[in-house]
Write a structure and sequence with these properties.
heterodimer; A: 397 residues; mainly beta; Porin; 14-stranded antiparallel barrel; two-stranded antiparallel sheet; 2 helices; 22 strands; 4% helix; 62% strand; B: 28 strands; elongated
Chain lengths: 397, 439
């Protein structure tokens, strides 16, 4: 299969909403859980997707694509396994799913810079809730189950441009358009029958499509050969949720805060680098548009890790990575301050390498793997998760 | 290198396939559900949902049942007699000769026989042993149109029986059926009687030709349902006279005639019988609700009724004890179907059954005797939902109540009509709640 065809297939998979897997019960809070559109390398380093050495396609670091010399495709898949529990009700459960947070394409544009197109998940809103109730019909008390499902989320397609201004400085900008959709459906199913027959199911719900615009601008700089720093800011218009014509619920509009990111990598020793990053956004502005019972707050996420780039596996370069990440979650079901933390690790595998015109090593195909073990807490709600990220990167088509 | 790429792609596809075995985050936390809906029960009286009730009769004929009926003064008035026409006698039989060879014998001698009548022991109303009479019919009759008074009632040929009640007949004898001893009665025939239903070689006088047999009841106060009638011939073979054969002659026609024919009801609904009765009425469903208060507390009244809010809808009928002569003696299967073209009634075609079981709403026969006035419900939820959504296949708002199998039995089911205190009503269970909003 040619890289081009591979990309096409994987992009199709990634942009199929039905395959977007849910990863947390906290998806039910506000607009859901933010899906970090980062690759497996950044995940393994505990980073927030900015300030990594080397060219890459990272939506939060638009300048990072400036030094890509050849057409490049990246695609990330992220399966996760989650155990869930509530200390106040002793409820427990488990679930699993796979999402595709990022598919990106970069291509050098006539020597002016590098064009990028990316498809990203922004908010995951998939969850299911059920509750047993007793309903009085005439003289009978009937058992019924109320259930509610929320399927979908906010996604984004982004067009970007990155350019190296000098040997050490690069800038980038991208324009994104929110998309995606949400189906929310409530049903009451009667478990008991009345004398002359069974009762049908009651259903109500709605369908919303998302729209909005955002712009991300960023810059990066190499400080000699020992450090690399980067920063970016994202401005968004309102996130509009438009109800379909047959939806009784109303359309909604949400403020999306300015998001700021900073990241840096320092070379501690030959083959050993430290990456750190943080991102901040005041999501409390979004809380005004949310339904009662959900709170929003300002968030700060940070993380960092080390990369051993000289490690090898079976004679091929296989950098090892370890890190830790702490992320505030913007929306809460309980009014507390939800947090996600994780220990991370991973490695990269070079599948094909060649030499460019200057006899420098050029990676044509590689896979990055990351493994996370972490927890999410929101008041009495706690989740422990194991998550894997797989990023395929193909270059030179 | 291509192998490496292919392996990479395969790995990614595996990851993608893993997504297909998703388990959504699921909780029983009620705070993650929208505001609870309310479920209320509503009963609409006849005038609020239906009008223009009419009862039509004449659907189907007795021979369609494939069964017979005999009665005498049942409930003091019902008389019924079964008419049967036998098929041609067998002209050959396979027998073994004296040497044990299997041969076909074309020279058979019928030296006696029996007419055996089989009864439905459940559906028959019989107080004890009863006596039946077997008679030979010599009047020409038409199986599709024969009635108590008419032997033939086709468009071009109308002939009354010389005697009402499919008479006269030449009696071939009687038999006693004891319900406690078995399910059949046997009329023994001598050699001459056994040949009675064999067509003659040449017919010169049609009045002498035997036209079948009539079974009638001599004991009063009973009503018997015949499931079958058979003619069995004792036969001697010319190839081996010591071999005794019993050959069965099939029947070509089986019907029954009865009297009196029930009058159309002056009040109330009627379903079943043969020819069958149907009850037809127009339905005008309520589209908005302004009560009860529990509903209005949950959603703003008036509420426009939507299909998804109707979790249950049923016609509520009250059984009525009517003429005991035609009272059901077995389970009644009540069906309800939309009428395609009400203007073509009574010959309007009907749509599919609204009762999902496929065998109708089954009602015990006792509901029409000691259970007079018992409420029975006929669920029509899906049809009501389709009407509210305006997606009925026919667009018709007219319903017909009828027997699920038509015709099925001489008995019919009766229900109180619109002018009765026990008039039909519409019971609905409505579930409604606030609109589901975006988070």
């Amino acid at each position: 299969m040619s890289p081009r065809r591979t990309f096409f297939v994987l992009a199709l998979v990634a942009t199929t909403p039905a395959l977007g897997g849910a990863q947390s019960i906290l998806n039910g809070a506000g607009l859901g859980i933010p899906v970090d559109a980062v690759d497996a390398r950044s995940r393994a380093l505990g980073g927030v997707g900015i300030g990594l050495q080397g060219p890459s396609i990272l939506p939060g670091d638009p300048a990072s694509a400036a030094r890509l010399l050849l057409g490049t495709v990246v695609m990330t898949a992220r399966p996760s396994w989650v155990s869930y529990g509530r200390s106040d009700t002793n409820e427990t459960g488990s679930f699993r799913g796979t999402d595709f947070p990022l598919v990106g394409v970069a291509y050098p544009a006539f020597g002016l810079g590098v064009m990028t197109v990316s498809f990203e998940s922004v908010f995951d809103q998939r969850y299911h809730a059920a509750n047993g109730v007793t309903v009085q019909v005439a003289d009978s008390l009937l058992a019924a189950t109320d259930s509610f499902s929320s399927k979908g989320g906010v996604s984004q397609v982004r067009l970007g441009f990155a350019r190296a201004l000098s040997r050490n400085v690069a800038v980038g900008i991208s324009f994104g358009r929110y998309g995606g959709s949400l189906v929310r459906r409530f049903s009451r199913t009667f478990n008991d029958s009345i004398a002359s027959g069974s009762l049908g199911q009651f259903q109500s719900g709605g369908y919303w499509t998302y729209a909005g615009t955002e712009v991300t601008a960023g810059a990066s700089a190499d400080l000699g050969t020992v450090a690399h720093i980067a920063g970016s800011a994202t401005w968004s218009s309102h996130l509009e949720a438009k109800a379909s014509s047959d939806t009784k619920g109303s359309s909604a509009s949400y403020d999306v805060p300015l998001q700021l990111r900073l990241g840096a990598t320092g070379v501690l020793a030959p083959g050993l680098a430290l990456n750190v990053g943080l991102t901040r956004a005041n999501w409390s502005v979004t809380g005004n548009g949310l339904t009662e019972g959900t709170s929003a707050r300002s968030t700060l996420s940070w993380g960092g890790g080390i990369e051993l780039s000289r490690a090898s596996l079976l004679g091929r370069s296989a950098p090892l990575r370890f890190g830790y990440r702490h992320s505030d979650l913007p929306f809460s079901l309980t009014g507390s301050a939800p947090v996600e933390t994780a220990w991370t690790g991973g490695l990269g595998l070079v599948l094909k390498q060649t030499q460019d015109l200057t006899h420098e090593a050029l990676t044509q195909a590689s896979v990055d793997l990351s493994f996370e073990r972490g927890t999410r807490t929101d008041g009495p709600i706690s989740e422990s998760f194991k998550r894997m990220s797989v990023t395929l990167r193909l270059t030179g088509f | 290198m291509n192998r490496t790429k292919n392996l990479t792609v395969a790995a990614m596809v595996l990851v993608a396939v893993a997504a297909c075995s998703e388990q959504d985050p699921t909780t029983v936390d009620s705070s993650l559900l929208p505001e609870q809906p309310v479920t209320v029960e509503l009963t609409f009286p006849w005038g609020d949902f239906a009008s223009n009730m009419a009862v039509y009769g004449g659907y189907g004929t007795p021979p369609q049942l494939g069964t017979g009926l005999v009665a005498k003064a049942f409930d003091g008035k019902l008389d019924a007699r079964t008419l049967v026409r036998f098929a041609s006698y067998p002209v050959s039989a396979v027998v073994k000769d004296s040497l044990g060879s299997t041969l076909t014998d074309y020279d058979l001698t019928f030296h006696g026989g029996r007419v055996v009548a089989f009864f439905d022991t459940v559906a028959s109303e019989v107080p004890g042993p009863v006596t039946l009479d077997l008679g030979v019919l010599r009047t020409k009759w038409d199986v599709g149109t024969a009635s108590w008074t008419m032997a033939m009632d086709t468009v071009g040929d109308k002939e009354p029986w010389p005697e009402p009640g499919a008479g006269p007949v030449e009696s071939f004898g009687t038999a006693v059926w004891d319900p406690s001893a078995g399910d059949s009665a046997v009329f023994v025939l001598d050699s001459a009687q056994a040949l009675a239903w064999q067509p003659p070689d040449s017919v010169t006088d049609s009045t002498t030709v035997v036209q079948g047999a009539r079974l009638s009841l001599l004991t009063s106060g009973a009503r018997l349902k015949l499931t079958s009638v058979a003619l069995r011939l004792d036969t001697r073979s010319s190839l081996n006279p010591d071999t005794a054969l019993v050959l069965t002659v099939g029947r070509t026609d089986l019907t029954f005639v009865y009297s009196p024919y029930p009058d159309p009801p002056t009040e109330g609904m009627r379903v079943g019988g043969v020819p069958a009765w149907r009850t037809v009425f127009d339905v005008n469903l309520p589209t908005t609700l302004s009560s009860p208060s529990s509903l209005c507390a949950a959603v703003r009244c008036p509420v426009t009724l939507t299909p998804s809010q109707v979790t249950y809808a049923a016609l509520v009928l009250h059984t009525k004890k009517e003429d005991p002569a035609f009272q059901p003696s077995d389970t009644v299967s009540l069906d309800v179907r939309p009428v395609f073209d009400p203007s073509a009634l009574p010959k309007a075609p009907l749509g599919s059954s609204l009762i999902s079981t496929g065998v109708g709403r089954r009602l015990s026969a006792s509901l029409f005797d000691g259970g007079d006035g018992t409420a029975v419900e006929v669920p029509i939820t899906q049809w009501v939902q389709a009407v509210l959504a305006d997606t009925t296949k026919t667009g018709s708002r007219t319903l017909a109540l009828l027997s699920a199998f038509e015709p099925l039995d001489i008995s019919y089911a009766s229900f109180y009509g619109p002018n009765s205190p026990l008039a039909p009503s519409l019971r609905m269970v409505i579930t409604a709640g606030p609109a589901v909003e975006h988070p």
